[in-house]
DNA sequence: ACAAAAGTGTTCTTGATACACCCATGG
DNA sequence: CCATGGGTGTATCAAGAACACTTTTGT
């Protein structure tokens, strides 16, 4: 029941006073991932005040009175990174965290989002983006609030999404090699993949990637130049590309 | 950033007045499904007041100051159905809907949940459960607020979850036949399945179901009595049980 | 005897896995 | 010429799809 009052079930609070209750603050928290140099990185900000002063935290902020959580998330992402209109940037709602004690100051309900950032563009620093920084996912100590859990949930979600969607291209620049795409999978999953099979799988999925006609690029300085690809129009991946040795994940 | 104020990014509102903003109401909405007599049914309540007076709506209500959204959802479910401690009942967070105009009276952010109810126990009526009723999913007209969308999202989620979890047993009574389990899949997905293959698939997944030793039951009055099964301990389904002709779902 | 529902077996095809192997480029 | 990374081919195996068939009950 959405209605705050006068709901047809008799359990909603009586009266219709907007201010009758201790107010809830509604915020968004963002788990922004990127893959750079073969490592998984997360965008974090350092807290200046108590509680958790000096700790790292997920970027985020209030949902303003006239915007949805999605709009707030996009706005915050732009403010933290200083980047607007990143092509191929993916942002999706993760879940909502509402435990009463999660912020010691007041009741804060946060809608968490997971975002995939392509490599390269403007990591941090410039402009009004205060001190947002990319940190290695594996080297992240305890975060403020319940952000460790949010980050873990986001990581699991991103890993799962790579299996059955074409989302991995959101981690890549507009043009990329199949080796780079494979590195995205290997970095997020933390497991090596068989190159020939990965290649077949990707190319056999219509609309996953499309080749840039004549282009080629040298990847590591050495070796044969690799063909370049762009993201195709497909979003789903059928059949899925499963993580190796996947037993009993809920 | 969870902090309402003094956050390390400069974008959070200044000051630390809990009442400085138009307050957000936080509610939960429940999409409760069951499979009865080969049809998919949804628990709905009829609204008594404006807006949307006389329309059907998802059951739900406020998140109280000292409970999480999950606790509120369990409480509302118990209140609407009059049932507590239903074994095998499954409830999970779906997503949060926060568009500013979704309730015309005030700003209401709702955390939506999807629940699977086993067949049979206490449909409605008794006790304080006002007028919650089971309606056929296929015969549901336009609902109040944005509940059509929430219900559609919940249905899609439930359908997807049947593919890769053992969740279907949550639709069944404690003891059930494989034919009944198959009917759950067919009802939710709306597609017929091959019985021999379904059977093999279910039995080949360790921990999905376990047979009740000597028991058997006559299903439709005629035919061979079917063996009875209980839900096993497993939660995940590897490899998944995919919907037929599944092309291009995001 | 027949219908209806449970349960078993078999074939065919697809997709995943694990390799071996060739190609192009820089040092 | 060799190390490095890109790209191709192939044999093997497990899983899913389709369907024929048997068994047990009620009418």
Automatic annotation (TrEMBL), chains A, B:
Pfam families: NUDIX, WHD_NrtR
GO MF term list: hydrolase activity
Keyword presence, Transmembrane: no
Keywords associated with the record: Hydrolase
Claim: Hydrolase is one of the keywords in the record: yes
PROSITE patterns per record: NUDIX (PS51462), NUDIX_BOX (PS00893)
Highest rank taxon of the organism: Bacteria
Stretches assigned to the Nudix hydrolase domain: 23-157
Assigned protein family: Belongs to the Nudix hydrolase family.
Name of the protein in its database record: NUDIX hydrolase
Organism in which the protein naturally occurs: Streptomyces capitiformicae
């Amino acid at each position: 029941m959405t209605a705050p009052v006068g709901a047809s079930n008799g359990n909603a609070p009586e009266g219709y006073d907007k201010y009758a209750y201790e107010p809830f603050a509604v915020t968004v928290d963002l788990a922004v991932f990127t893959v750079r140099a073969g490592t998984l990185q997360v965008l974090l900000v350092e807290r200046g005040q108590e509680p958790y002063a000096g700790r790292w935290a997920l970027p985020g902020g209030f949902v303003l009175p006239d915007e949805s959580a999605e709009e707030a998330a996009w706005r915050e992402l732009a403010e933290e990174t200083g980047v607007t209109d990143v092509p191929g940037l993916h942002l999706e709602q993760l879940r909502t965290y509402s435990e009463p004690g999660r912020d010691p100051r007041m009741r804060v309900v946060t809608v968490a989002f997971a975002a995939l950032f392509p490599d390269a563009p403007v990591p941090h620093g410039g402009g009004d983006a205060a001190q947002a920084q990319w940190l290695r996912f594996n080297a992240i100590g305890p975060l403020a609030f319940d952000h460790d859990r949010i980050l873990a949930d986001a990581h699991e979600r991103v890993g799962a999404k790579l299996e059955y969607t074409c989302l991995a291209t959101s981690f890549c620049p507009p043009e990329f090699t199949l080796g780079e795409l494979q590195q995205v999978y290997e970095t997020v999953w933390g497991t090596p993949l068989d190159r020939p099979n990965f290649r077949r799988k990707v190319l056999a999925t219509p609309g996953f990637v499309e080749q840039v006609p004549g282009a080629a690029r040298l990847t590591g300085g050495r070796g044969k130049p690799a063909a370049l690809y762009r993201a195709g129009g497909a979003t789903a991946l059928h059949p899925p590309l499963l993580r190796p040795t996947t037993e009993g994940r809920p």
